[in-house]
């Protein structure tokens, strides 16, 4: 664990204060149900314990509120020990232990094993291995000129193996203590704070009798954060070292009250042998000063996984890295972010993969914190659907691994999922999950009529977990809470989780470029070294698609531009309009010169009718000119725009004649129209989903058209071409492929003199097999005359479900696609290599959004932009993913 994260290192904490921190059901000093009268013996209360069920409580002690502890340690799959330091008794305190059986029940009487001074400030209890397994209790006490560190070793039955040993006496503050078991006993490590928030880490090897072997050794200097864990043959220690700050910056920090450590530090890892001495060189995990906050490290198979909160950017995020057995580092990567930032809460090594726990602090409402837990995959990011829950109060939830999943200890409202929880009692709660991190068991620590007000120190083995729980006040009844596995929650069917296929594409970088907005549509183009991203969105707290009359009252969608650099960092949005309509979508075309920016096409309501607008923006996305292109009565929608012929060709669907027909015109760079509005189609039924592609002297158009079944609205894909210089029709419209399904959302990319065309053949609602033959994503290749070169191909996808949208990208002979695939309860992105016969699909990413989410996709080389919409306001966003394709 990291600095100052030792459980409750308070000088003289009270159960009252701790219960207040947890916002417990039983307020401090309030009357708890069935409290025992003063003087009731522990054994008498123990007889009233709740009958065996999901959680069983075992009374272990009655503790004065001025005591320090108790804390819990448990041998793997074996006995345990609770230890505490009593309230002051005259000029000193007693160190007391209670031996526990494997199930947490006391296995003998409590024992006083040593004495401590009245000024004792911290206590920890840990396991000891070696030839005679047992436990180590360590504590710190104030001295006249600093602090002293003491420890004592006890056997499995709590019997002391000798007198307490003073390990160190220092003039500095001891701010952290931990004990790591080894084959020779244990290594005790502590941190002595020296100056400016930095500390030195000191280690001392202990034998099974608690005596120091050799001399304590300083193993790290001037560090701001740390973590230790057991490794085969010794100890692994991770340290954070703050970057050197120039004097001028230090003065600035002093002026504004910013600590150097807040800037972050570099993360290093090194090993200690069983004697606590350095063994091997130091390995740099994160050489840039980005590591701040808590650092957690776990063993995951043959490698170590590191996680921390990076607070060096405007919005903090959770980052991970890894170190394999050969010393190869998987470099840091951003894995969790949220609007307002994301913060690490915990990391646990699971039966197969680790689990990561985090929160979005900005989403807190009062004392309610929104927490998520997810598996960490081979590529160090969360995989599968996260477990989500709300915890109440400021106490941090705990995460631990079990043999078949994970366990969480947190303070929650006692209510069922999807029910009203406003008035539900707040209780310490244990959650158990399966290996997919899906919740299968929930147990409140009520213990019959004596509910706990606080729980802490959870320790788990293969088949069970123990935690300490406190009920009542002054003195508090302390129990071990034994979590006995059972299934009392409805186990949801597994969500298809993207599996990283050996040799397949994978996401290397995932960045939120828009946060806190419900993105309806997006478009992107390259402008020099950056990407100009244009979005059509609504505030996350209101409906994405407003009513038809909303924009008249100023409640349309927001059209905005952002510049996204090569690292995925997006600039602040530049608002183009707040009256845009979802029916128009948004399209963008780059000017012929990068320095001249781009043109946007979109729709706004003018005088009661949706009309097409064209807006010029400079290379930074700032508006320089805007024209209303149409004025006719009727509904304009589905805009498209391309560059060509010294200007821009704009096409759209227009309902001025009673049904949706395709129209086009041309404007110059100053947006002056130089061609008439040309009607391209003339048929019953509506045209929709219009797209355009410049090809030579023409502009190809593709759209979905229901002319063959105007009453049912079942469309096929149609194509045409118009001349670039005047927007007149060059090739008559023609149907690409007649099908029984509803064809929609075509996409075009170049292919020699022709084009590749992709679209969706949509299965009827409620069909059991939406991916059956005849339905899905289709691909066709067309010649220069807009004719099919061969029979269309059904694009494969990476799992069960139905494709809902598709985007293409072509680079020379390499053709690739990204497909959004909807399953019964989730939505995923698949990467498809279409350069091989038949194509080859790979699952890529599970989205936060529901299966019904309309995913807008834009592919630009190795980058894909898409919208996502999780269950909370902060989860509405658009992302950029960098895809690494196999060579």
Describe this structure in words.
The model is unreliable at 1-51, 246-262, 494-500, 543-554 and 766-770 (pLDDT under 50). The chain is elongated. β14 and β15 (234-242) form a beta hairpin. Helices cover 2% and strands 54% of the residues. It is an all-beta fold.
Short description:
This protein is mostly beta strands and 887 residues long. It contains three helices and 59 strands.
Our measurement of the CA-to-CA distance between the termini, rounded to an integer number of angstroms, reads 41 Å
Tell me the number of strands. Answer: 59
Strand content: over 45%
Largest sheet: 7 strands, antiparallel
Rg, nearest Å: 32 Å
- Count of individual helical segments: 3
Low-pLDDT residue spans? 1-51, 246-262, 494-500, 543-554, 766-770
Q: Order of strands in the sheet with the most strands?
A: 14-15-16-17-18-19-20
In terms of structural class, how would the helical and strand content be classed? Answer: mainly beta
- Overall geometric form: elongated
User: What oligomeric arrangement do these chains adopt?
Assistant: single chain
Report the average pLDDT across residues: 85
Helix content: under 10%
Tag the structure with descriptive keywords.
887 residues, four-stranded antiparallel beta sheet, elongated, mainly beta, 2% helix, disordered N terminus, 59 strands
List the helices and strands and how they pair.
Blueprint: H1 15-21, H2 42-46, E1 55-63, E2 68-74, E3 80-85, E4 92-100, E5 111-117, E6 120-128, E7 134-143, E8 146-155, E9 165-170, E10 173-182, E11 185-195, E12 198-206, E13 212-223, E14 225-231, E15 234-242, H3 247-256, E16 265-273, E17 278-300, E18 303-310, E19 317-323, E20 329-336, E21 343-348, E22 355-359, E23 368-376, E24 382-392, E25 398-402, E26 405-413, E27 426-433, E28 439-444, E29 454-460, E30 465-471, E31 476-483, E32 506-515, E33 517-527, E34 530-539, E35 557-564, E36 574-580, E37 587-590, E38 598-606, E39 609-617, E40 623-628, E41 636-644, E42 647-654, E43 661-667, E44 678-679, E45 687-695, E46 698-705, E47 716-723, E48 729-737, E49 742-751, E50 754-762, E51 776-782, E52 793-794, E53 802-811, E54 814-822, E55 827-833, E56 840-846, E57 857-860, E58 863-869, E59 876-884
Antiparallel strand pairs: 1-31, 2-3, 3-4, 4-5, 6-7, 7-8, 8-9, 10-11, 11-12, 12-13, 14-15, 15-16, 16-17, 17-18, 18-19, 19-20, 21-22, 22-23, 23-24, 25-26, 26-27, 27-28, 29-30, 30-31, 32-59, 33-34, 34-35, 35-36, 37-38, 38-39, 39-40, 41-42, 42-43, 43-44, 45-46, 46-47, 47-48, 49-50, 50-51, 51-52, ...
């Amino acid at each position: 664990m990291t600095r100052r994260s030792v459980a409750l290192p308070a000088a003289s904490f009270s159960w009252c204060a701790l219960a207040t921190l947890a916002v417990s059901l039983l307020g401090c000093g309030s009357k708890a149900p069935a409290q025992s009268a003063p003087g009731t013996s522990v054994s008498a209360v123990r007889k009233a314990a709740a009958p065996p069920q999901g959680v069983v409580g075992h009374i272990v002690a009655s503790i004065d509120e001025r005591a320090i502890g108790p804390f819990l340690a448990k041998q793997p799959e074996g006995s345990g020990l609770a230890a505490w330091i009593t309230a002051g008794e005259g000029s000193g305190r007693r160190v007391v232990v209670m031996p526990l059986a494997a199930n947490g029940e006391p296995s003998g009487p409590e024992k006083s094993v040593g004495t401590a001074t009245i000024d004792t400030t911290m206590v920890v209890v840990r396991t000891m291995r070696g030839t005679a397994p047992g436990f180590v209790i360590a504590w710190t006490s104030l001295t006249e000129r600093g602090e002293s560190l003491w420890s004592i070793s006890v056997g499995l039955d709590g019997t002391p193996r000798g007198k307490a040993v003073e390990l160190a006496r220092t003039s500095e503050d001891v701010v952290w203590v931990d004990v790591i078991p080894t084959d020779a006993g244990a290594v005790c490590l502590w941190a002595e704070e020296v100056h400016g928030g930095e500390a030195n880490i000191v280690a001392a090897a202990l034998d099974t009798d608690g005596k120091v072997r050799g001399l304590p050794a300083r193993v790290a200097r001037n560090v701001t954060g740390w973590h230790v864990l057991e490794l085969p043959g010794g100890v692994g220690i991770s340290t954070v070292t703050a970057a050197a700050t120039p004097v001028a910056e230090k003065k600035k920090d002093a002026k504004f009250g910013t600590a150097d450590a807040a800037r972050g530090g570099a993360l290093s890892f090194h090993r200690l042998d069983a004697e606590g001495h350095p063994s091997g060189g130091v390995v740099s995990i994160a050489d840039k000063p980005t590591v701040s906050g808590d650092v957690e490290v776990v063993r995951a198979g043959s490698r170590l996984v590191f996680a921390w909160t990076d607070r060096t950017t405007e919005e903090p995020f959770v980052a991970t890295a890894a170190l394999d057995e050969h010393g190869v580092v998987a470099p840091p990567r951003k894995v969790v972010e949220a609007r307002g930032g994301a913060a690490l809460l915990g990391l646990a090594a699971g039966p197969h993969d680790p689990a990561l726990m985090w929160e979005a602090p900005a989403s807190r409402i009062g004392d309610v914190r929104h927490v998520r837990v997810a598996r960490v995959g081979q590529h160090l990011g969360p995989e599968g659907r996260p477990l989500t829950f709300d915890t109440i109060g400021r106490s941090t939830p705990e995460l631990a691994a079990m043999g078949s999943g994970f366990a969480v200890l947190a303070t929650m409202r006692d209510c069922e999922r999807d029910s009203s929880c406003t008035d539900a009692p707040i209780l310490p709660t244990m959650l158990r999950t399966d290996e997919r991190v899906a919740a299968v068991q929930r147990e409140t620590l009520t213990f019959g009529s004596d509910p706990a007000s606080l729980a802490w120190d959870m320790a788990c083995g293969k088949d069970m977990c123990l935690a300490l729980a406190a009920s009542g006040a002054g003195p508090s009844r302390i129990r071990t809470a034994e979590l006995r596995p059972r299934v009392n929650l409805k186990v949801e069917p597994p969500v298809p989780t993207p599996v990283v296929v050996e040799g397949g594409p994978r996401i290397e970088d995932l960045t939120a470029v828009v946060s806190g907005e419900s993105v309806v549509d997006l478009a992107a183009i390259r402008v020099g070294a950056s990407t100009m991203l244009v979005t059509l969105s609504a505030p996350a707290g209101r409906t994405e698609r407003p009513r038809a009359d909303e924009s008249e009252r100023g409640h349309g969608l927001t059209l905005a531009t952002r510049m996204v650099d090569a690292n995925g960092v997006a600039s602040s949005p530049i608002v183009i309009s707040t009256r845009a309509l979802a029916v128009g979508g948004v399209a963008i075309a780059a000017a012929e010169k990068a320095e001249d920016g781009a043109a946007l096409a979109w729709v706004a309501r003018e005088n009661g009718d949706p009309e097409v607008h064209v807006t010029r923006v400079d290379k930074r996305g700032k508006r320089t000119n805007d024209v209303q292109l149409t004025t006719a009565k009727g509904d304009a929608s589905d805009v498209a725009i391309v560059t060509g012929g010294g200007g821009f060709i704009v096409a759209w669907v227009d309902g001025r004649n009673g049904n949706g027909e395709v129209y086009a015109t041309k404007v110059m760079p100053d947006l002056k129209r130089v061609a008439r509005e040309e009607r391209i189609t003339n048929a019953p039924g509506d045209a929709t989903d219009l797209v355009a592609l410049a090809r030579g002297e023409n502009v190809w158009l593709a759209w979905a058209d229901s002319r063959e079944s105007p009453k049912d609205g079942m469309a096929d894909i149609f194509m045409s071409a118009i001349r670039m210089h005047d927007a007149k029709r060059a090739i008559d419209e023609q149907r690409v492929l007649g099908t029984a399904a509803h064809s929609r959302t075509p996409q075009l990319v170049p292919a020699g003199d022709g084009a590749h065309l992709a679209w969706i053949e949509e299965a009827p609602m409620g069909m059991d097999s939406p991916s059956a033959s005849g339905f899905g994503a289709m691909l066709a290749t067309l010649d220069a005359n807009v004719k099919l070169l061969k029979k269309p191909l059904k694009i494969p996808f990476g799992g069960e479900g139905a494709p809902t949208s598709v985007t293409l990208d072509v680079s020379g002979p390499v053709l690739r696609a990204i497909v959004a695939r909807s399953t019964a309860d989730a939505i995923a992105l698949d990467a498809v290599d279409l350069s091989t016969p038949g194509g080859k699909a790979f699952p890529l990413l599970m989205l936060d959004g529901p299966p019904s989410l309309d995913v807008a996709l834009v592919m630009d080389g190795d980058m894909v932009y898409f919208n996502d919409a999780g269950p909370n306001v902060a989860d509405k966003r658009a992302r950029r993913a960098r895809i690494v394709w196999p060579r």
